[in-house]
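Final report, closing paragraph on structural work. Over the funding period we assembled a curated collection of sequence-structure pairs, and we close with a single example.
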Amino acid sequence: MPRLLALALALVALLMWQPAGPAAAQGAGMATLVADSLSIEADDRLIAEGNVEVLYDGALLRAGRITYSRAQNRLEIEGPITLSQEGGDFLLLADSAELSDDLHDGLLRSARVVLDRRLQMASREVARIGGRYTQLTDSVASSCQVCAENPTPLWEIRAARITHDSETRQIHFEQAQFRVMGVPLVHIPRLRLPDPTVERATGFLAPALSSGGTLGTGISIPYFIALAPDRDLTITPRITTGRSFTFGARYRQAFQSGNMTLTGALTRDRIRPGRTRGYLFGTGRWQMAGDITLGFDIEAASDRTYLDDYGITSAATLESTLFASRLRRDSFSRARITHFRTLTDGVSNARLPQRVIDLRHEQRFAPPGLGGVARLSFDLLAAYRQSDDATAGLGHGRDMTRASLRADWRRDWVLPGGVLAAALGEVQVDRFAIRQDDDFPSGITRTTPAAALELRWPWVGASAGGARHVIEPVAQLVWAPRRRHKVPNEVSRLAEFDEASLFALHRYPGFDARESGNRANLGVSWTRFDPAGWSLGATVGRILRPRGPRQFSDLSGLDGRRSDWLAAVQFESAQGLSLLARAVIEPDGALRKNELRVGLSREGLDLTSSLTHLTADPDENRNSRSTEWNLDAAWQVTPNWTALADWRYDIDARQAARIGLGAQFRNECLLVDVSLSRRFASSTSVSARTDFGLSVDLLGFGSQPSGPARACAQ
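Its predicted structure, as stored:
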């Protein structure tokens, strides 16, 4: 019988069999049945045969034959049987079954349950109870692919009974046994795990094994607590063979306008016997009305070495901040309170600006009558030290407040012949209030104006092969009074000489230090754009002054009547290769600063390598030459295996500073992370240290994404 005619007859039959009353009139509980043939026998039995499909209440049943008894309200089904739920989160396969007419209760034989297309559970018998529970007896569960040539999964959980609760989306195991490649490892009387559709569920997370330093080998067992849909808590006890016990915790909460995360730990160990050690890190961000953002960052530790002892961070300074900011199209405002704490041995926190308050407001506008773009900036900085030492030249106890008002303006023109011209102007007024520093008066007022004329002449051409060339010489003539103001410098410590600062009116960051004196900033750039998709660019520049007042450090490359040469080369290919080389070159050809960066990003490979060379410069807190080679690489060796490596090598000391190796295996059912790192002793490290880490996750429980499945032999 054609399927279209069969469908029509089936619908007529089902409509005729609906009980009278309001429920029938409203069409409640009606099913749709499609089959190759349909017959109704005298004993009120309906028999559908051949490609049978029944759609009812979001469930779709496919079978070879269905017999429906109206008297018993039962379905006898012959396979192969497929029962799936709308959305694909639930799939049940069986050879035969007896089910209630609403498909909510019954028994399936030689059945297999698939959850979220990942986790499989198989049993000789599967019971459907109340439309909510699916119960398997003498069953096995695994998310690993099973091949005909190797029917044993990579891992499996065998249990006397497995019950899946579709309402709570939890899987309950009774008398469970965990096996790896068929070998029993652990017996668990009772076990509860979330099904693959659950994103957050209370329970244990994957344990992690670590080893290193004086702590020895340790194990961490996180326990996740879903407190509510908008917040959760993860507690992580950790114990090591070095007699260290740590209780860690992470609290997260989402708000309608933002989020907050707090992470910390308390530790008792033999590194500092009899003391409770610990740390607290936290972040919070809230987006308020009027484009206002409120936030905080917390970084605190019980002592200087705790964070390094436990591999949390190797940062030299902790920074805690409370701030409010507002960003709009033409304005930016920020208020911030920051507390600094150094972790470097031998450096006193009392002599550093521990508490800093800074306020900033910038407004961009078009000045009437002048054209161009102008910006008005206000900056307030207050830095407080605990020390009362006012010794001149040291600044150990200096407390300082600075208020700065800056106005700058720029306007561009296009002149005949394609010459681009620009006029720039800037003036900054500062007021310093200083306490506890004999090297400075209590009050200083400073005014620093500057103006510049900039000319650019881009030349554009094309070669016979279709490549485009752009050559752009630039000359910037800057006027600025040659004034030397002796003022405290809290934030403008390091002046960089690179492509971004070559044509700047002032090369110091921040508001504290200002560059003075007339000068000419000169440079030329060349860029080639090739039709094959790669580009190559080069920049050369220098600063000339009629006089050479000492403003910058000797080794910055910026000081003197003639600065060092700045040279930079950039290359990018369509195949993911990038290269950046930048150097500050002395007039005699010696390299003062040199940086080389190489990156390669292709399918299955990400590599970044850098080589930096810096000469000694006490003004930059660098008392000896530094030449260092860094490497970071991630290589997807196979669809399942990824190799990781990082390398830090001190060329001057002729020894590695750090070596890290790692490997990650991920397939459809398993995630394994292995890491091994070695930190070598140096002037900034107390001692050498080797760390080992191992974590194993069983995929298929919870919503963690799976990797590519292993291929079975054809």
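The domain at 3-204 is CATH 2.60.450.10 (lipopolysaccharide transport protein A fold). The longest helix spans residues 3-17. We thank the funder for supporting this effort.
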